[in-house]
C-alpha cells in the first residue's frame, strides 16, 4: 500500500507540475500580447503636415487608397504611374475630399525604362516639388501561370516591374533623402508593398513569387544598412485585395492556385491600405494584415528581429524581450500549423493536376 500510495503521489505531483507549467506558458503569452497590444502599439499621428509623399502605382488599388490616407493626414502627395488619364482621375478623387491646403501632383513615368531617363525625370520632380520624405513602392502586377506556361517576356516583365523598378527608384531618391537636411533621415520612410507570395511559394506563381521574394530580400538588406541613419524601412505583406489588378490576375489563373490563394481571404483596398499606412508612419518593418497575416509573418521570420518590434522602439529592451519570448513560445505550434498547411496545399494541387491529367488522357 505504501509503494502504491507513493507511486500515485509522484505521478499526481508530475501531472500537477505539467498542468501548472502549461498554465504558466499560456499566462506568459497572454501577458506579452496584452502588454504589446495596450502599451506598445501606438497610433499614427493625426497630421503629416509638410511631408512630401511619393507613391509608385498610386493611380489605383492599394496605392490610391494609401494616397488618400496620406493626403487626409495633411501630406503633399505625388502619384506616379504610367497612364496619365488614370493619374488625373486619381488626382481629382483626392481633391474631391475637400482639402485644398495640400498638393497632389502626378508624374507619368514608365518605371521599366532605362535607369538614366528615369533618374532625369525623378530629379526634375525633386527640384520642383521638394525632397521626398516618404517613398512608397506600390507599382506591381501578378500573372498566375505554371512555370512551363509562363513566357520568358512575362517573367522579365514581372521582375522589372515588381523588383527592379523599386530598386531603381530607391537608388535615385535615397541619396537625396539622406543628404537633405530639412528633416532628419530617421523621420523619413521607404515602404515596399510585397505580397504573401513573397513569404511562401505557391503553385502557379513561379514568376510572381520570385519577383516578390527578390523585393523582400532587398528590403531586408536595406533595412539593415539604414537602421542607424534612417530612413526607416517598411515591408508590407497584404493579402488578396479587391482591385482591378486582382481581377486581371484571376484571368487564366490555374484552379489550384485560385483555391489556395482564396483561402487567405479578401481585403478591400481601404482595409489593406490602413494597416500599411499605420505601420509606415509608426516605423514598423513588418506590416501584416489580420491574424493570418501576422501568423504567417511569425512563421516565416527566420533570422529576423521579433516581428512585432517597431524600429522606433529599438531601444526599448522590455518590448524586445517580451516580443522575443512570445515568438519563441509560439514558434513550435506555428511550425506544426505550417506543415499542415503545406500538406493541404499539396493535396489541392494533386487533386487539380490529377484531374487535368485524367481529362487529357
TrEMBL record:
Keywords associated with the record: Membrane, Oxidoreductase, Transmembrane, Transmembrane helix
Q: Name one GO biological process term.
A: sphingolipid biosynthetic process
InterPro entries per record? KR_dom, NAD(P)-bd_dom_sf, Sc_DH/Rdtase_CS, SDR_fam
- Mention one GO molecular function: 3-dehydrosphinganine reductase activity
Domain Ketoreductase, chain residue ranges per copy? 51-240
Q: One Pfam family name from the record?
A: adh_short
**Which SMART domains does the protein's record reference?**
PKS_KR
The regions listed as transmembrane in this protein's record are 16-36, 190-208
Q: Which SUPFAM superfamilies match?
A: NAD(P)-binding Rossmann-fold domains
What protein name is recorded for this chain? Answer: 3-ketodihydrosphingosine reductase
Cellular component GO terms, alphabetically?
Answer: endoplasmic reticulum membrane
Report the domain of life of the source organism. Eukaryota
Amino acid at each position: 500500500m505504501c509503494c502504491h500510495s507513493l507511486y500515485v503521489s509522484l505521478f499526481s505531483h508530475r501531472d500537477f507540475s505539467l498542468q501548472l507549467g502549461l498554465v504558466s506558458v499560456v499566462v506568459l503569452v497572454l501577458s506579452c500580447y496584452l502588454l504589446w497590444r495596450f502599451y506598445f502599439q501606438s497610433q499614427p499621428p493625426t497630421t503629416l503636415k509638410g511631408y512630401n509623399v511619393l507613391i509608385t502605382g498610386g493611380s489605383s488599388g492599394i496605392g490610391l487608397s494609401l494616397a488618400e490616407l496620406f493626403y487626409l493626414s495633411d501630406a503633399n502627395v505625388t502619384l506616379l504611374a504610367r497612364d496619365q488619364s488614370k493619374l488625373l482621375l486619381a488626382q481629382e478623387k483626392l481633391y474631391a475630399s475637400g482639402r485644398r491646403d495640400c498638393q497632389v501632383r502626378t508624374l507619368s513615368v514608365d518605371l521599366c525604362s532605362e535607369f538614366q531617363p528615369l533618374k532625369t525625370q525623378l530629379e526634375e520632380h525633386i527640384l520642383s516639388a521638394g525632397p521626398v520624405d516618404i517613398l512608397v513602392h506600390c507599382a506591381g502586377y501578378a500573372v498566375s501561370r505554371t512555370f512551363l506556361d509562363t513566357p520568358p517576356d512575362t517573367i522579365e516583365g514581372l521582375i522589372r516591374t515588381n523588383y527592379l523598378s523599386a530598386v531603381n527608384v530607391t537608388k535615385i531618391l535615397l541619396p537625396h533623402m539622406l543628404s537633405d537636411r530639412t528633416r532628419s533621415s530617421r523621420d523619413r520612410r521607404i515602404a515596399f508593398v510585397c505580397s504573401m507570395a513573397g513569404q511562401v511559394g505557391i503553385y502557379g506563381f513561379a514568376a510572381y513569387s520570385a519577383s516578390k521574394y527578390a523585393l523582400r530580400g532587398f528590403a531586408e538588406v536595406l533595412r539593415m544598412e539604414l537602421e542607424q541613419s534612417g530612413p526607416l524601412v517598411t515591408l508590407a505583406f497584404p493579402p488578396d485585395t479587391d482591385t482591378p489588378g486582382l481581377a486581371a490576375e484571376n484571368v487564366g489563373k490555374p484552379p489550384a492556385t485560385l483555391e489556395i490563394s482564396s483561402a487567405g481571404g479578401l481585403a478591400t483596398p481601404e482595409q489593406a491600405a490602413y494597416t500599411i499606412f499605420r505601420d509606415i508612419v509608426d516605423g514598423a518593418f513588418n506590416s501584416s494584415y489580420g491574424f493570418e497575416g501576422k501568423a504567417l509573418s511569425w512563421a516565416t521570420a527566420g533570422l529576423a528581429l521579433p516581428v512585432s518590434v517597431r524600429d522606433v522602439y529599438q531601444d526599448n529592451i522590455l518590448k524586445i524581450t517580451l516580443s522575443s519570448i512570445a515568438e519563441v513560445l509560439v514558434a513550435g505550434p506555428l511550425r506544426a500549423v505550417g506543415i499542415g498547411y503545406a500538406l493541404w496545399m499539396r493535396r489541392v494541387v494533386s487533386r487539380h493536376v490529377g484531374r487535368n491529367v485524367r481529362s487529357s488522357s
